[in-house]
Structures are given as C-alpha cells and as structure tokens.
Amino acid sequence: MNDVLLDIQDLEVTYEVNNEVIRAVNRINIQLHKKETLGIVGEAGAGKTTTALSILGLLPKKIGFVKNGKILFKGQNLLDLEHELIRQIRGEVISMIFQDPMTSLNPVIPIGKQIAEVLEFHNSVYQNSLMSEKNKQKKTKAEIERLVEDILQMVGISPSRKHDYPHQLSGGMKQRVVIAIALICNPELLIADEPTSALDVTIQAQILSIMEDLKDKLDTSMIMITHDLGIVAETCDTVGIMYAGQIVEFGTIKDIFTGDRHHPYTVGLINSLPDIDSNQDRLKAIPGLMLSPTQITEGCKFHNRCPKCFDKCSTIEPNEYVKGSHRIKCHLFSCTD
After folding, report:
1. What is the pLDDT of residues 125-170, one digit of tens each?
2. Would you report the helix, strand and coil content of the chain in percent, each value rounded to 5?
3. Whole-prediction pTM
4. N or C: which end of the chain has fewer CB within 10 A?
C-alpha cells in the first residue's frame, strides 16, 4: 500500500550478555500508515523499547543484535543502511522521545542551544534520499534561532526561556523541551517511549495534548510505547499488544476495545484497569510472571499465566487468527476466519 510508512517484517532481536542469549523480540510484524498513531502496549520486559531502538539503529553495541527481519521505512530497509546515513535519518526523518526527560537533557547546556544543535547537525550533513523536501533547504543562523523560538512557543514554553538550563525547569517543562528537540526537524515518524511515565497525572494530560496537536500540525506519524491502555484509547488509531517479545494481538482501537475476540493477555490487561462503577476492593492482577527471555520455550509464551490454557498451548506455538485488520496469536481461535 502506498500509504504504508513503516513496515516491520519478522523482526528478531537478541542481547548476548555473559554468555547468555536474551531473546528480546521474536519475529514481530507491524505496519504503520502515514499520519497514524500506533500504540505498542505491554509490561516491562515485553520488548517494546527494543523494537523502537531497532528502528533507530540504537541497540547497544556488541551486545544487541538484529538476527532476522526487515524494517522498511518508505520502502527502504533501514537495516541495510550505513551507520552515517542512519545518523542523518535519526532526528531528521525519524525522532524519538525517550522515557525520562531528566536524563535526556544535558544539564550544562541551555535548552535553546540543545534544540538548535539538532538543526545545526542536520544542516551540515549531506542530503539523504528519505529527507522531505522542506528539510533539504540549508538554514541560516537567524533561521535556526527563529525555528527554536517557534518550537518552544508550540510546546508552551516562552521563547525568553531559551537561555535557561534544565535544572531551572519543572519535570513537565523538561518533557516539553524533549518534545521540541524531537520535532524541530519536522520528522515523518515520531517514536514516544512512555513519554509521560515520569510525570504526575495532570501534567501527563497536558503533554499528551501537546503531542497530539503537534502531530496533526506537522503531519507526523507516531508510535506510542506505553503500558497504559487509557493513553492508547485516547491517542492511538491501531494497537499492538506485546508479550515476551511477540505481538500477541494487533488491530484497530475498535478491534481491541470493542471486538468480541481477544487474546487472554489482552483480556487480563483490560480487566486489571480500575472500574469506577465497581465496588471491588482490589484490582484484578494477571497471576504469575513473564517467562525469562533467556529460556527457550515451546508453545505459547503466555501459557504459564493463561486461565484458558489447555494441553497444546505448552507444546505448540499458535498460529494467528486473522479477521480483517485484527490478528490474534492464540490457539483459542482458528488460523483464519
């Protein structure tokens, strides 16, 4: 399809540490269309951040390896590109908002300078084939200064504070600066790795609203990595439910939240949400723990925690049930419908 921006095919990623192989991502398939927001949901250790780092070529050197698959961006496999070209694409064409704004900013450089550095770097390198036309124009120092002030205004920070240092800003303002850095080059894809997890609830809502507004203004596609289904319901068009390095369910917001068939893990996530109409004393937690990614296991990765597990779940890996845009990797359903 012409409007497919990102197409991840059979991606497999491992970490090799202390003679152990950690299977972080196990042959996942994801598609993201232009101007869409894709949510990737799962608990800690599911492989969400590893997937994002693979897209940007930021896996830890010497221990992180892409073992299989393709990451097609506008039809070009990012895994085949030279390191220097990936550096040009990073920040210019594909940007990322990292999880903790406290550690994302340099404490000894003013925020305006940190934003400008992104433009200055991409202003100095040669053009690449994935760049948009609007970013191919060289910018003067005065234009860079104006763009920094414009993006600060867009994220709700007065341009007069561009000379401030990170320690002079609140947590919410730091995250706005990180968003400004990610969006200053008008990237076509923005990856947000739990961008509100370090913030309190009221600031979370403001940050999500800013990100949505800027995404629409800049025509940017987005991947929202989170463990919060509430954020997904509010901001995303499609959702991938990730467990133990696999996408166990994928579909539109309607498929995930109102469909009549779901992976037991998805059901567990939804049931664990608090219900304001219920008088229950405790939340419904999913029992047990995720299997260690160092273990080579047969069958379904969720079988040891699944309330609907039966014999073949522990010995045979399930195929996908497919109905339109909705995919579920579970033995409870047939392969196709």
Report:
1. 655 556 655 555 678 899 999 999 999 999 999 999 999 999 999 9
2. 35, 25, 40
3. 0.91
4. N
